[in-house]
Amino acid sequence: MDGGRKAVDEMTAVRTARPSARERLLAAADELFYREGVHVVGIDRVIEHAGVAKASLYNTFGSKDELIRAYLEGRHAATEKRLTDGLVAYATPREKILGIFEIQGARFLNPESRGCPFISATAEAMPGAASLAAADAYRVWVRGLFADLAREAGATDPEALAQQLHIVYDGIAVKMRMDGDPAGDLAAGRAMAAMLLDAALA
Amino acid sequence: MDGGRKAVDEMTAVRTARPSARERLLAAADELFYREGVHVVGIDRVIEHAGVAKASLYNTFGSKDELIRAYLEGRHAATEKRLTDGLVAYATPREKILGIFEIQGARFLNPESRGCPFISATAEAMPGAASLAAADAYRVWVRGLFADLAREAGATDPEALAQQLHIVYDGIAVKMRMDGDPAGDLAAGRAMAAMLLDAALA
DNA sequence: GCTCCCACAGACAGGTCTGTCTAGTGTTGG
DNA sequence: CCAACACTAGACAGACCTGTCTGTGGGAGC
């Protein structure tokens, strides 16, 4: 929409000096929205944490809803990069599928983890909220990743296998957050994924 | 806690005339909190929908947080009753376990369903919130139900089986809410539960 | 009858919410 | 030098938030 045609020199100059208002806002939103929740954290706390004027937020994003969308899109992009980068270390499609649980599970093991940001942000979303569209895009991508790997692994019904793996993926995200034994839950989820793979590739 | 020792005459008299303020508040909270979310719905909307004075709410529950706890405890009690009543129709422990998915899945198939109220209400809960304790009690009960049935079914490791079943239970609750194919997700979850049972009872 | 108690209606306090607006500052490119 | 631009600080509007308080009315028990 705006600023797309700027000279590269200017952008790098600004960036080396200090992160732009947009970047600081996104960093603050990412931290606060994830830690405390998109409904609990108000605009004032975000701009205070970012060290940014309120007008800059509304010039850049237009509304809180759009800031939430940008926050979730950032989470989506980071997860996509983390997984695509991490999965190259695994050789076979089967190992890559288990690697997804390994990589994402490690995140949820962090004591700072508050579970899946898409599940949380959409838990109380109103029907037309931007968070719903962002969460949908994320989930379509995850489902596609499972399905692609299931196909490469030679599953007879890759879509069905992906659906089952996605259920386990959601289940451990919730259970690791809510109950007191994230490591045990993750191990149980991994075992289930392996069992599903064995059954689907037999 | 209170009112348990009241004369039956008085209670029935009140009940036939009109539900008490407490009952109307709980009914309104149940509807609004579940449909729109405990953070989105304010006290004013609850009391307006219940047709109750604000002072009655604070005399009865003391705070919004305690009203949320009462709302979740009501959900817990209703689910417990629904399952214990519904499961008598199933003969074997194995069928009862699958019956849990049948009974609860049918609820999530309702277009009005917004998924698991405990997952949603705790998604943005602050550390000491009453919703966390209520959700914990509910989840301990669910886990215990799975474990008891797994033990009766003769599973070698009933706790491990219960943990896996609980992951599937959470997974379908989330996936049925967020993606567009609740019936397919439920069928996939049922199939996974059956597979887990076959593996654990072999 | 009279008193107690539950529930009513609603004003009020003090704060927070999102979003708008004005005015000023500092840097950069021409 | 000057115009453009991104940004800052902060007042402001109008709504909503939780929670408290005052005063009223009606039914039940003594």
Automatic annotation (TrEMBL), chains A, B:
The entry's protein name is TetR family transcriptional regulator
Q: Which PROSITE patterns match?
A: HTH_TETR_2 (PS50977)
Keyword Transcription in annotation = yes
Q: Name one Pfam family in it.
A: TetR_N
Positions of the DNA-binding region? 42-61
Going by the entry's taxonomy, the superkingdom of the source organism is recorded as Bacteria
Could you tell me which residue ranges the HTH tetR-type domain spans? Answer: 19-79
Q: Which Gene3D superfamilies match?
A: Tetracycline Repressor, domain 2
Q: Which UniProt keywords apply?
A: DNA-binding, Transcription, Transcription regulation
Annotated InterPro entries: Homeodomain-like_sf, HTH_TetR, Tet_transcr_reg_TetR-rel_C_sf
